[in-house]
Amino acid sequence: MPAGLSTGAYIRFCIVATLTAFAGSQVVHMQYRPLDDMEKLVEEEIKRRRDQIK
Fold it and tell me: What does the alpha-carbon distance between residue 11 and residue 8 come to, in Å, rounded to a whole number?
């Protein structure tokens, strides 16, 4: 395994790294709420594209 780690230690590291990444992304979504205004943004983009076509 890389860096002289045992297989078990390597697998534990990978699991912990994955869970940490999931937890971090969840915190960002709970704190900043990036998808709360998604429908408004989609409507604005549709309107902008319609205006470009005309």
Answer: 5
Each residue of 13-54: pLDDT tens digit?
A: 999 999 999 999 999 989 998 888 999 999 999 999 999 987
What DSSP element (H or E) covers 14? helix 7-32
The structure tokens 């780690």 sit at: 5
- In whole angstroms, give the CA distance from residue 1 to residue 22: 24
Whole-model pTM? 0.61
Question: In angstroms, rounded to a whole number, what is the distance separating the alpha carbons of residues 24 and 30?
Answer: 10
